[in-house]
Write a structure and sequence with these properties.
about 40% strand, elongated, DUF6894 domain-containing protein, DUF6894
Length: about 80
């Protein structure tokens, strides 16, 4: 099975995957990245309004094959 690596970026915080995980295909790795991205975003409430959380999925060669971004932009409407 192919090995995929998951790196997460949340503003100044970064988490790099040195071990990787095996998945039968990139779609399963994609689903894992998206689910984990919600967990990373929920994990810590930072001060400030704007927030971008990014998940990069790399293959065994180190090439990024998928990226997901979760953005939060709160706006007062009054």
């Amino acid at each position: 099975m192919p090995l995929y690596y998951f790196d997460f970026h949340d503003g100044p915080r970064h988490s790099f995957d040195d071990d990787g995980q095996e998945f039968p295909d990139i779609k399963m790795a994609r689903d894992e990245a998206i689910g984990a991205l919600f967990d990373v975003a929920r994990d810590e409430r930072r001060a400030g309004d704007r927030r971008d959380c990014i998940a990069d999925v790399s293959d065994e060669s180190g090439r990024i094959v998928f990226r997901a971004r979760l953005s939060l932009t709160p706006e007062w409407l009054t």
